[in-house]
Design goal:
With 109 residues, this protein is mainly alpha-helical. It is elongated. 38% of the residues are buried.
């Protein structure tokens, strides 16, 4: 549930940014956002109790946590004009993507 809500929010952020920057060349996500997304995903995995990793779940978590998360972080920085907003989106998106690894819909239940 948390991962789905985060994925919808990240997609909405990227689509709003792409809609506002129609004529401009697309800016790629920086490596710092990729690293922050990975760190957030690792922290989220530790917080939810280090569930067992399966290859399919891990790929889903990495795609949404790192690829889409870093793109959403770059979009947040461009939309709001502050680097800390992008960093917060990167870490929160990475941490939320760790919940794809859970068996149930909610952690701590």
């Amino acid at each position: 549930m948390i991962a789905i809500a985060a994925a919808v929010a990240q997609l909405a952020l990227v689509l709003v940014h792409r809609g506002r920057a129609r004529g401009a060349a697309p800016q790629g996500a920086t490596w710092s956002y990729v690293a922050l997304c990975l760190a957030g995903g690792t922290a989220g995995w530790l917080v939810i109790g280090r569930p067992a990793l399966a290859w399919g779940d891990l790929c889903l978590s990495l795609v949404w946590g790192v690829a889409i998360g870093s793109e959403a972080a770059a979009a947040a920085e461009a939309l709001f004009g502050r680097a800390r907003t992008g960093r917060a989106v990167a870490v929160a998106g990475g941490a939320a993507s760790a919940t794809w690894l859970l068996d149930g819909p909610l952690p701590f239940v």
